[in-house]
Amino acid sequence: MTILINNQEVPVIIEHKNNKNLYIRVKEDLNIYVTCNKRVSLSEINSILEKNRKSLERMYNHQLEQNEKDSFYYYLGKKYTILYDESIKKYKLEDDLIIVKNEKMLEKFYHDECLRIYQERVEYWSQFFDYLPKFSIRIRRMTTRWGVCNRGNNIVTLNSELIKKDITLLDYVIVHELSHFKEANHSNRFWNEVSIRYPNYKEARKALRD
To answer: What is the pLDDT of residue 210?
Structure first.
């Protein structure tokens, strides 16, 4: 089976699984993959593809751009493929897939996971410090820093891009910023504070630079 996308015939690969829903995705090979129950007929599949032609074109063009950039979506250091399923109401992770309805839901997944995981890790590491003031956490995308500790207003800002890194690197940045509540600069005393709680900080710094 093929479908016409951007004035060219694109192969449609059908994969039968015990799914209740029908999933459509475009992989790196630029083929369209349909995962569905074996009871779904070819005519039904064709009808669904035609009905969702605009979404297919967006998915196909998006994958073209992704191939050109040679980029993937990373979550906690693991590479994922985005699968779009217009029937779902909430995002979910399955194996190496992040399943979302659209780009807006993908952004929500990203945002929600930052809030949840960052808060959990900050709470975990805070118990190892005995000099922390009452502080708040902010999360935003930064281009030059992984984290910032503002001792004037007791706010720790963490880069949202850390959600794509291995969680050990997020832990390092948290320890780094919390240590600034005692040592404002990057003196030997500061690095000693970091090393007490995160001995492998040099490896983490190198990984973040790379």
So the answer is: 78
CA distances from 173 to 27, 44, 50, 129 (A): 34, 51, 48, 15
Q: How far apart are CA 146 and CA 3, in angstroms?
A: 44
> pLDDT tens digits for 156-186?
999 999 999 999 999 999 999 999 999 999 9
Q: Of 98, 115, 124, give the one whose Cα is nearest residue 197.
A: 124
Two tokens at 79? 């590479």
Strand, helix or coil for residue 151: coil
Burial (CB count <10 Å: 0-12, 13-18, 19+), residue 131: exposed
Among residues 143, 141, 207, which one has the least CA distance to residue 171?
Answer: 207
